Amino acid sequence: MFPENIFQALAEGDILAIMFVVLIVGFALAYLIDSHNESIRDGALTIRKICVTGQEILFLIIRGVLEYSPIGVFALIAVAIGDIGVSALVPLGQLILVIYGAVVVMLVVYAVFILAMRRSPLEFFKAAKEPMLTGFVTRSSSGTLPVSSRAAEKLGIPQSTYSLTLPLGATINMDGTAIYVGASVVFVADAMGTTLSVAEIISVILVGVLASIGTAGVPGAGIIMLTMAVNTAGLSMAPVALVAGIDAILDMARTMNNITGDLAGTVGVDASEKRRERKKARARQEA
Ligand code: ASP
């Protein structure tokens, strides 16, 4: 995970090593942006600007490439069905079932979490229903933010809390995407007739979680992270094209999962804030 030479890691596409370095550099940069020294702060802000612009350039190029993906995906699926027959679609159906099943499990996990926060899961899901549906059809965590904010208000969460947690969640909390990356890498390995070792599975989980943090809250962003994880596991990219063919269906479920997680996290932060306020009030009363 810790590269001896970052340039070598970049050249070899060693994703895990690159991600760790990026995280550390990101933290250091955030620290410098807060510096009291004006010239250091200005320099750090310039580097930040370069990074943001670099990201925009990359997104633009990827969007351009993705414009042509329907043609490629159509051709690849046609070849797979032509070679193997309609049975080639069965594993894809299984992948859809696995991911939707995992999302249902996650909803149960959220319900338990909400209960642990001493709130009613029923009340939570009643408020979350609208953003969940919006996320399901728009496939965008960021695009659903206004609807999620309304749901947080319905849950009685103050704006000072949700205006921080929801945008943060829409940017870095992508648990549905992490599930999708993990399940899809196993699908790709299966399609190639290989079995992943325990070490490979662990590194796929690590890459999936870290990559999901860096996934943009826009439709289809997760597939870029999937290619990274497939690369880390040393698997072929060809089956990824098959996943791309059904990516919209998978994206609906994972985005809904991501959004529910953001809202559940917001309830968690609100509960801890209220606990802190109560403690403070009690201390004041005693004094
Ligand atoms: N569409 C997802 C979201 O907005 C990201 C992804 O593609 O996994 O949360």
Highlighted features:
287 residues, mainly alpha, 13 helices, binds aspartic acid
Summarize the structure.
With 287 residues, the chain is mainly alpha-helical.
Count of alpha/pi helices = 13
Helix/strand order, N-terminal first: HHHHHHHHHHHHH
Structural class: mainly alpha
| Residues in helices, as a percent range | over 70%
Strand content: under 5%
Largest sheet: none
Ligand catalogue: aspartic acid
Average pLDDT confidence is 90
How many extended strands? 0
Shape annotation:
globular
| Unreliably modeled segments | none
Rg over C-alpha atoms, rounded to the nearest angstrom: 21 Å
Distance between the termini: 51 Å
Can you tell me about this structure?
- It contains 13 helices and no strands.
- By secondary structure, the protein is mainly α.
- Helix 2 crosses helix 3, helix 5 packs parallel to helix 13 and helix 8 runs antiparallel to helix 13.
- Bound molecules: aspartic acid (ASP).
- The site of aspartic acid has 16 residues, from helix 13.
- The site of aspartic acid (ASP) has 16 residues, from helix 13.
Please specify the SSE layout and strand pairing.
Blueprint: H1 6-12, H2 15-33, H3 38-67, H4 69-84, H5 90-116, H6 121-138, H7 145-154, H8 159-172, H9 175-191, H10 198-213, H11 222-232, H12 238-245, H13 247-286
Helix pairs in contact: 2-3, 4-12, 5-6, 5-9, 5-13, 6-7, 6-13, 7-8, 8-13, 9-10, 9-11, 9-12, 9-13, 10-11
Bound molecules: aspartic acid (ASP).
Residues 139-141, 174, 177, 215, 217-222, 251, 254-255, 258 line the site of aspartic acid.
